[in-house]
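--- STAGE predict ---
source: upstream dedup step, 1 unique chain passed
mode: sequence only
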Amino acid sequence: MATNASLLTDEAPVSSVPMPAEWRDFVALTKPRVMTLVVFTGLCGLLVAPGHIAPILGFTAILCIALGAGAAGALNQWYEADRDARMKRTAARPLPAGRMDRESALHFGVGLSFFSVLLMGFATNWFAACILAVSILFYVFVYTIWLKPRTAQNIVIGGAAGAFPPLIGWAAVTGDVAALPFALFMLIFFWTPPHFWALALFVRMDYANAGIPMLPVVAGERVTRRQILFYTSIMAAAAMAPVLLELTGLVYGLTAFIATAIFAVMAFQVSLSRETDPAKMIPERRLFKYSVLYLFLIFGAVVVDHWVYAA
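--- STAGE serialize ---
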């Protein structure tokens, strides 16, 4: 049973006598819901890359991206177990709930990291494996350990951690990187702040209780709403860059324009909101949910555009 986060103090430890972990707990360590978007963007990078990759090797490359993302998620939960115990949103995870010991989570995360990188190297090429390794190390050491507990800019800089998959997918096919996957990297990078800050607005107390300096906690809701709109404008430019640079065609251009316009309208509504009750933050919740759909739409459009113009 999950620990009641509201009864924990800042010094509350994770349960010292964990119950035997089940396979579901190891799956939960990999953050499967987050992994879905990571795998999809990596797959899109692979599908639009020039050249050919055998289906079994392409599947293996995507599997490695998924395993690498899962490894990073496991190591994140290993390091943040005590913080997770102080947040209602994360208190039911295997470690704070006492269903697994930290050593098992650490070994699982490290083992999965090495396995994913080595498999990627042997199955495709070592350049793609190196990018995968960098993405794992960046998420664990730069974002989780260094940035997240120290600065409100954690999501801005740390957004790079989730932006690597298109580069990895592309590199698995070609052995290099080019302008299009880099443009997709930048799109995810600038998408991350409005996506996460929309969430942070209505779970602000969770972050405050855990001592995590998310922007709404240290700068307030009004500043956060303005920053969401500001980064949305940069994200919009990044979304249209592939068209302006003639890296994509009309299918992507129209999809990106319409989807981004909807995103911008929602971000503008968030910037006008003055609601302080998390339960009533409808524009913020709507933007957060749409932001996930937005990335699926944009990356799906890249693939469809590629198929249309390659035919």
